[in-house]
Amino acid sequence: MKTIKEMITDHLIKFQVPKHINWLYTIGSVLILWFVLQIATGISMAIHYKPSVKLAFLSVHRTERLFKYGWLIRNMHICGSSILFLALYLHMFRGVYYKCYSGSRKIIWYTGNIIHFIIILIGFFGSALGWSQISYWAVVVITNFIGSIPVIGKYLKTILLGGYIVGDPTLRRFFIFHCILPFVCLLFIIWHLILVHARGQTSTIEGRMPISKSFIDIYPIVIARDIIACIVMLFIMNVLCLIYPRILRNKLSYIPADYYTTPSDIESEWYFLPYYAILKTFESKISGVLTITSILLTLTFIPNIYNIRLPRAISDSYKLHSITAFISLILLGLMGRCRYSKLVSRLSKLCVLWYLGYFALPLGIKLLLFIDKNKAKWI
User: Fold this and answer.
1) Is residue 202 packed enough to be buried (19+ CB in 10 Å), middle (13-18) or exposed (0-12)?
2) In this structure, are residues 277 and 348 in contact, taking their beta carbons and an 8 Å threshold?
3) Where on the phi/psi map is residue 339: left (φ > 0), alpha (ψ -120 to 50), or beta?
4) Least buried of 30, 190, 240, 325, by fewest C-beta within 10 Å?
């Protein structure tokens, strides 16, 4: 059995990584650091939080204004969530771009997508805890869409709300979920890291060099890059927290929740804007929910979608298609910031079609190959 010193040497010093990995591979370390920071700042705020519709808004602002460095802790938590989602999306883009889901690494991709889904839930539950105008009405809108899901929608909505309206039970449930889910996610992150160290990293130019010359030890070059990336992101967060603390906040987050005054234009956090644009674009609630589900599922099951030998023209343009697919999501997020109009609606639907087409193409080829293979049996 290996000693602790040998395990540290194997996994933190002599762990083999591809020689030509780039700066996108440092995002994983940034994610781990920021997730730990989010837990630390979240615990600091949870100590003083009151999960009550009458006291929630006051307790948050009391923590920010009266406790020593409370304003800094809250700014770090708010800005940290944005940096966490930015790093998460970049990490997932890198996984798709370099086909990090191929071969035996498929299980790594699945655990990563579980982490992605849990972080989305953590972000949603956390955004409601401020109990401001934007928080309250965002919960009302999202739970109404959840209630439109056939068969199970009404039950899910009732479980989330703790009743039939948004109130004290809803806030208590969201607070509990927001406190428990990060530790559940932490277990999946540990599992994800264990799998990465067991299956190895994907090379950016895999197959072009002899295996013996394609890998190097993670220490010192790769670890130095990770440290530099973390320092750069810490500098960015300091700038956001100390110089531009309000740049990531909606003006409605400074107004307590008012059940009788609906804001003219509800806007979610930037990292939820693509999903918000979909909900705003489709006339039918169920269409919006199904579209969001399709986007999440296609991203999850991309190892099963792109596991066939495709025509060379498609294989050679895979990376370009990956870039355009993620650009379509960025454009969809920009559409989420615009007021609803026919032009915005059409552009949003076009972005959705382009993104889903990225996954529909290999599925169509699979279907044609299946028909061609079994044509003789059917005739």
Assistant:
1) buried
2) yes
3) beta
4) 190
Range 267-366: architecture per CATH: Orthogonal Bundle (1.10)
CB 15 within 8 A of CB 21: no
For residue 160, what are its two tokens?
């989330």
168 pLDDT more than 50: yes
Q: What is the dihedral of CA 74, 76, 79, 80, to 10 degrees?
A: -120
Distance CA 291, CA 353 (A): 10
N-to-C CA span, the chain? 61
Number of other CB atoms surrounding residue 320 within 10 Å? 9
Specify the DSSP element, H or E, that contains 18.
Answer: strand 16-18
Identify any residues that bridge with 256 across adjacent strands, giving them in sequence order.
132
Contact 219, 14 (CB under 8 A): yes
Distances (CA, A) of 74 to 41, 94, 139, 246, 356: 7, 30, 21, 12, 37
Decide: 166 and 45 in contact? Cβ < 8 Å.
no
Q: pLDDT digit string (tens) for 282-310?
A: 878 888 889 999 999 988 989 888 876 66
The rounded distance, in Å, linking the Cα atoms of 99 and 302 is 9
pLDDT of residue 22: 86
Provide CB contacts within 8 A for 222, sequence distance 6+.
17, 21, 25, 216
How far apart (Å, rounded) are the C-alpha atoms in residues 277 and 334? 8
Give pLDDT, residue 375.
67
Residue pointed to by tokens 């355009």: 324
| Of the candidates 42, 46, 68, the residue with the CA atom closest to the CA atom of residue 59 | 46
Tell me the CATH number of domain 1-266, given options 3.30.70.3270, 3.40.50.150, 3.40.1000.70, 1.20.810.10. Answer: 1.20.810.10
pTM: 0.92
> Three-state DSSP class for 217?
strand
